[in-house]
Amino acid sequence: MRPAGERGVRLTVVGCSGSGPGPTSAASCYLVEHDGFRLLLDLGSGAFGALQALADPDTIDAVYLSHLHADHCLDVAPLVVWHRYSGRASGHRLPLIAPAGAERRLALVYDSGGAPLTDVFDFAVTPVSAILGPFTVQTARTAHPAECHAIRLTAHGSSLVYTGDTGPSRAVVDLAHRADVLLAEAAHPERDGLPPDLHLTGRQAGEAAAAAGVRRLLVTHVPPWVDPAAQLAAARTAFPGAELVHPGATYDV
Ligand SMILES: [Zn+2]
């Protein structure tokens, strides 16, 4: 069976739990497909298991890591194990795009004794713009303590923007200008005294979507201790059509 997304761009939610895996979802991981090309956006804790229920890991063509917090990158380790020992991997090195320093950090995650993972991955530092398979890629630095980049993927006239982790950010709004779909984190509950430049509230995710003029807002990255219905309701105060993602959901962009 050919992968989905041959004509349009298809987004599948592999994991959407914020800050770590939750009881009903792995941490951050999204599969984006177009024309048979399969790109993973983030590979957070717990996501490699969920991925196997949705796509054969051998069919992944590239991995993009928004940043190197555990809930966005830890399951690179089981992917390395799969590639080295399953006997099924293609033998091709997998392009892995991530902020500078990923090669060293992910080797530590795998505890490879300092040995690089370059037999599995072809590492590339996050570009401002690039072509990746059938996608035109643009990125923007977000407002987050770790170096994090939001990404805009465009193919076949459709555009998807994923915020990664961010506080309110003009750069992210600009990146999302008139996108078809904005997949936006909303990790912070609505309350006073929140640390700046870390995460969005639901309302702030809605405000970003409205300011960018996107067609559709998908709210994600809600931590297990935050009420997702409250995050969605808050997002809808600024963007009435906002939707809450759930694991396994697919969206044609
Ligand atoms: Zn983070």
From TrEMBL:
Gene3D superfamilies (UniProt xref): Ribonuclease Z/Hydroxyacylglutathione hydrolase-like
CDD domains, alphabetized: RNaseZ_short-form-like_MBL-fold
Top-level taxonomic group: Bacteria
Domain Metallo-beta-lactamase: start-end pairs: 26-203
Pfam families, per database record: Lactamase_B_2
Gene Ontology MF terms in the entry: 3'-tRNA processing endoribonuclease activity
Name of the protein in its database record: Ribonuclease BN, tRNA processing enzyme
Species: Geodermatophilus amargosae
